[in-house]
């Protein structure tokens, strides 16, 4: 599942001009994408995969303009009408899901057989994430911003990076990550969740920490970590 998502982002990432990615980083991502396609006997599909990335970008741009959204959020804050802003965008969530599904289908040729089997899980996982964020027409996003969630993340950026670094240090190589069984992977996810939530709880308001904890628990519930056998091992 995660491999499919990584390749999808590589396909989008090679479009450096769209996201102000430097030429060096764009070339690095293109090289990684080409290597992955070649590894799976699909070197001739690199161009079509990159095209899928471009189609995705164009699709998303039809739904949302980031600069306009920022202006709408700032204009809505004083009047307490953030919910109206996010309702407008959440009404477009079915189209966003379609954009993402088409991207995953577009990168499929460069995935190995195991990753291809997880395309459905990748689609389902992102659909659940969008549904969570757009619950009650985006009320959760509106509350997160109103309760200074973005500011909380900025304040605790170093702490959050440290949470990620701890996990990275404990699983220092790709091979080590592959060797983890499901219960061990779930334990790492729980460890990261605890660290992130504890960091955010130090902000002025508890709302950001509570919302992130709810989101991560929601994601976990929809994953294989929620199976009874894994629960018995972990708890």
Task: Describe the secondary structure blueprint for this structure.
Elements: H1 2-13, H2 16-19, H3 23-39, H4 46-63, H5 66-76, H6 82-90, H7 93-107, H8 113-117, H9 119-133, H10 139-146, H11 149-155, H12 157-170, H13 174-178, H14 182-200, H15 207-221, H16 228-234
Describe the protein.
77% of the residues lie in helices and 0% in strands. By secondary structure, it is mainly alpha-helical. The mean pLDDT is 84.
Beta-strand fraction estimate: under 5%
Radius of gyration: 19 Å
Please state the oligomeric state of the protein chains shown: single chain
Continuous helix count: 16
Which segments are poorly predicted (pLDDT under 50) over 5 or more consecutive residues?
Answer: none
Query: What share of residues is helical?
Result: over 70%
Distance between the termini: 25 Å
Number of strands: 0
User: If you average the pLDDT, what whole number results?
Assistant: 84
Question: Largest beta sheet, briefly?
Answer: none
Global shape:
globular
Structural class: mainly alpha
Order of helices and strands: HHHHHHHHHHHHHHHH
Annotation keywords:
235 residues; mainly alpha; 16 helices; 77% helix; 0% strand; globular
Quick structural overview:
With 235 residues, this protein is mainly alpha-helical. It has helices at residues 2-13, 16-19, 23-39, 46-63, 66-76, 82-90, 93-107, 113-117, 119-133, 139-146, 149-155, 157-170, 174-178, 182-200, 207-221, 228-234.
């Amino acid at each position: 599942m995660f491999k499919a998502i990584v390749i999808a982002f590589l396909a989008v990432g090679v479009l450096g001009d769209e996201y102000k990615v430097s030429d060096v980083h764009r070339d690095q991502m293109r090289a990684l994408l080409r290597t992955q396609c070649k590894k799976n006997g699909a070197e001739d599909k690199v161009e079509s995969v990159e095209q899928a990335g471009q189609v995705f970008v164009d699709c998303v741009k039809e739904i949302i303009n980031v600069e306009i959204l920022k202006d709408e959020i700032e204009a809505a804050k004083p009047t307490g009408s953030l919910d109206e802003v996010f309702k407008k965008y959440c009404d477009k969530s079915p189209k966003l899901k379609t954009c993402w599904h088409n991207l995953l289908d577009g990168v499929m040729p460069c995935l190995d057989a195991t990753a291809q089997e997880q395309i459905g899980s990748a689609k389902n996982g992102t659909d659940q994430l969008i549904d969570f964020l757009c619950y009650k027409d985006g009320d959760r996003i509106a509350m997160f911003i109103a309760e200074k969630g973005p500011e909380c993340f900025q304040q605790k950026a170093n702490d959050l990076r440290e949470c990620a670094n701890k996990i990275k240090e404990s699983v220092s190589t790709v091979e080590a990550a592959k060797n983890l069984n499901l219960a061990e992977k779930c334990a790492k996810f729980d460890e990261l969740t605890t660290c992130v939530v504890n960091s955010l709880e130090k902000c002025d308001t508890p709302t950001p920490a509570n919302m992130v904890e709810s989101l991560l628990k929601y994601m976990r519930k929809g994953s294989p970590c929620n199976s009874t056998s894994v629960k018995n091992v972990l708890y």
